[in-house]
């Protein structure tokens, strides 16, 4: 049991100025740790250094690369390696927490550069043939340096086991559940279907929801679709029956307060994602906000909803099945309200008070007997390569 404040370094592999679940996870975890008296420094790439909070150290400008059905903004190479080593050398960390250290990023570079207590958190769920894991022979000896491993879901754990033949303890992503309880806004309530995310990414599944709208509107004539998040709506509006366009409203990116109001207002929250998700943080937030949730039956979403116990599932990429589930849900207000009430109570398991306690127990295991974080020997093979 550690009873003293720790100095913790957290490495974010993705561009800090781009919205994403990993960035949100790190930001929330850092706040929780600081509130408990610990010191935390976050290293992350960014395209806009001026927008960084004072506790994030700029590792350099990331590059956009296709990854796991989306676009990842990551940083890799000898200049980034030097920056990582400088950050480690200038801080006297008790522990490093590396997010996604199995992809070419500054998290992998930090794992190469450091010795001592290191925890890796794995977020990705990916098929074994994905090209991003072609460097497995290089990764395996590096990942073995980790003192402990966390997977955010069973899907992420299975990915880790399949690619790197190593295991991890499953600790879900966390949310501040009280923050998700907003006020009901009349303009967003009623027979409304909410969607939130980077809707221009096909795997987020907005098209699946849009394709279900003609059937839903036939039986629910007052139904509306509210779309929140960054993206350009024109590519969707052009494909929609002109008679249905007035049923779809694009709200743009919402603030955290507006997100809470959104989840507390919509008739149902729809998660139509088609794959590439290792968890379902947006579903956990929707549940915490009091929304009735309908989601595709991809493994990560089915796991969050406990196979339909706390939300309705439909066959992934099947717009007709989605329409049927939505119509049945909207028709039975009593059952919908009870499902939302049960889901809101269940969402407490994802609260940071629960999740961070589990993460800190992993920290304690990693620290015992492992000294402090320092730079790895210059004679290590990867150091010889990068230091040339």
Write a concise keyword list for the protein shown above.
single chain, Rossmann fold, 7-stranded parallel beta sheet, alpha/beta
Structure description:
- With 388 residues, this protein is an alpha/beta fold.
- It folds into 2 domains: 7-174 and 351-386, Glycogen Phosphorylase B (Rossmann fold, 3-Layer(aba) Sandwich), CATH 3.40.50; 177-349, Glycogen Phosphorylase B (Rossmann fold).
- The protein is 38% helix and 18% strand.
- It contains 14 helices and 17 strands.
- The protein has helices at residues 21-35, 78-90, 106-113, 136-143, 154-164, 206-219, 234-237, 256-265, 281-289, 299-304, 319-331, 333-346, 352-367, 381-386; strands at 7-11, 39-44, 56-58, 63-67, 70-74, 95-99, 114-115, 118-122, 148-151, 169-170, 192-196, 224-228, 248-252, 268-271, 293-296, 312-314, 374-375.
- Strands 3-2-1-6-8-9-10 form a 7-stranded parallel beta sheet, sandwiched between helices. Strands 13-12-11-14-15-16 form a 6-stranded parallel beta sheet, with helices on both faces. Strands 4-5 form a two-stranded antiparallel ribbon.
- A hairpin with a 2-residue loop joins strand 4 and strand 5 (70-74).
- Helix 9 packs across helix 12.
Strand tally, please? 17
Quaternary arrangement of the chains shown? Answer: single chain
Q: What distance lies between the first and last C-alpha atoms, to the nearest angstrom?
A: 42 Å
- Using the coordinates above, name the CATH class of the largest domain: Alpha Beta
Q: What's the rounded overall pLDDT mean? A: 90
Task: Write the CATH architecture name of the largest domain.
Answer: 3-Layer(aba) Sandwich
Q: Any idea what the radius of gyration is?
A: 22 Å
Q: What count of domains describes the coordinates?
A: 2
| Assigned CATH superfamily of the largest domain | Glycogen Phosphorylase B
Q: Would you give the CATH topology of the largest domain?
A: Rossmann fold
Q: What amount of the residues lies in strands?
A: 15-25%
Dominant shape: elongated
Q: In terms of per-residue confidence, which ranges show pLDDT below 50 for 5 or more consecutive residues?
A: 129-133
Q: Give a quick account of the main beta sheet: strands, pairing sense, barrel closure.
A: 7 strands, parallel
Q: Kindly name the structural category.
A: alpha/beta
Instruction: Name the helicity range.
Output: 25-40%
DSSP helical segment count: 14
Write out the strand line-up for the largest beta sheet, numbering strands in chain order: 3-2-1-6-8-9-10
